[in-house]
Amino acid sequence: MRSFFHIIKEELALIIEDKSILLTCLLAPIFYAFFVGSIYKEKDVVNIPIAIVDHDHSSLSRTVGRLIDSNEKIQVMGSYSNLNDALFLFNSLDIQGILIIPNDFEKNTINLEGSTVELVLNNTKFLTSNDINKGVQQVMLTISGGVRYSYLISSKVPSELAMQQTQPIMPVVKSIFNATNNYGDYLLPILLVLIIQQTLIIGFGQSVLHELTHFKTLSDPKVNFFEFVKIFTAKGLYYFVLYASLFFLFYKVIFPYYHLDFKGSEFLHFLLSSIFIIAVMVYTTFLGTFFKSAIGWTEIMAFSTYPLFLVSGYSWPIEAMPKALQVVANLLPSTPYFTVFNKLASQGAVLVNIKGEVIHLLLLLLLGFLLLFVRFKYLHKKRTAALEVSESV
Description:
Blueprint: H1 4-17, H2 19-39, E1 48-54, H3 59-70, E2 74-80, H4 83-91, E3 97-101, H5 105-110, E4 118-121, H6 126-154, H7 159-166, H8 183-214, H9 225-257, H10 266-288, H11 294-302, H12 305-310, H13 323-330, H14 334-347, H15 355-392
Helix pairs in contact: 1-9, 2-8, 2-9, 6-7, 8-9, 8-10, 8-11, 8-14, 9-10, 10-14, 10-15, 14-15
């Protein structure tokens, strides 16, 4: 049997020889961190250019234009009477949105008859389109509230009661997980962690498949479960050190580069990241036993990135998912880890605040070893039966 250090030596030779593993585990995380991150680098966009097509030419429509232009996120590049003039600028990407104010806007609004205002947005840049949409909505709500307040005052309603009827519910927004209320600040940290997770799954999975197909580990009668664990512990040592170093690099270099919050205990960050790496490698080894080739593994895992992100509970509450998806989500190591990471990085949580998620992650690690043991025993029994049949023949 191969010794522990002999397996380590073999794995080093494989990593150097197999350019696919080398590129996936070493270069891809850095490349994608800057490539994907560059999309969100300017997370807080200001002075987004738009145009206003004013068919009403009234005092109220001009007030709408001034209020929108006063929003720090939006810059009104001009007011036009002809939609085609604004569309020319829109199609040439000189502006990112067009607000169309209809005829009789002031008249219908003051008479409380309602008026439909149209907004054309360039949705290829969803961060900017979202800011335009929010800014215009705030202005229109302010205008409608002001008109209703004026109407109530003119109807001899006391000012305090008029204010209450104009806005009976006062919204109070307190950001918790997204303190800056910025989409880029909320999404980018987990995208960076997702890059680490997926490259680890693909790269280490290729190594697992090489072991299973090249050395036929599952067909070797001398390999018991403890020998199986020893082999993959030796092989996984490089990946653990590499990805622990990548987490350190991301925390110390990539996150500051993008001006991302990184609060909480650094020791807890690295400890839980290390547990997460081990859990991902255990599940990768388990799933690798169901594949026949590294190419098939890479193809499937490359397309798993978005589904794994969606069911992790980060972009959509797990409680709102179908029951079957809730079960799947709670079996993924990324589910508790993403929650822990967000609480640590954004809120500066301490261990007592995340103990439930930590226990969840540790239980999933234990479950991973249990699944691997059951899978190995099944394959061992199947292999033994096949050998008995071949010997009897």
